[in-house]
Amino acid sequence: MGQLAPTGPVYQAGTLSGNPVATAAGLATLERCTPEVYATLDRVAHTIADGVATELDRAGVPHCIQWAGPMFSVFFREGPVLSYADAQGQDTAAFTAFFQAMLAQGVHLPPSAFECWFVSAAHDDRAVDHVLAALPAAVRAITDSSARVRA
């Protein structure tokens, strides 16, 4: 254990990080995940990601959405992201404008352009509608900031 930070050279972090209470809560959650819960996660994730894609397409903002189960990532670039170099090639300024506009409307996204979006069974129709309603203004924030950069 002496090799682990903060005293050692090995940095270790994780969602549960071996915390027994967090691990028990995670296990209890997984034990209650039914096929219906997974179907809800898929529906919610696709509804949100489709809404993001629709608004970005409408504004002509380059983007790519990639999936791993009900988790997805929105990259502000053309074409798929197959490597870290591809991810670095995205428009992080567009992400920042989008993120800040969503946050201002009460939608909390992952704070980095390199992270994936997670949904949960707690995202009911009202929460999804709130996210979808926030998208047009967030996309306008991208196009407005891009216009300022070009001017």
From TrEMBL:
Its cofactor is pyridoxal 5'-phosphate. Signal peptide: none annotated. PANTHER family: GLUTAMATE-1-SEMIALDEHYDE 2,1-AMINOMUTASE (PTHR43713), GLUTAMATE-1-SEMIALDEHYDE 2,1-AMINOMUTASE 1, CHLOROPLASTIC-RELATED (PTHR43713:SF3). This is Glutamate-1-semialdehyde 2,1-aminomutase. It comes from Arsenicicoccus piscis. The lineage of its organism: Bacteria, Bacillati, Actinomycetota, Actinomycetes, Micrococcales.
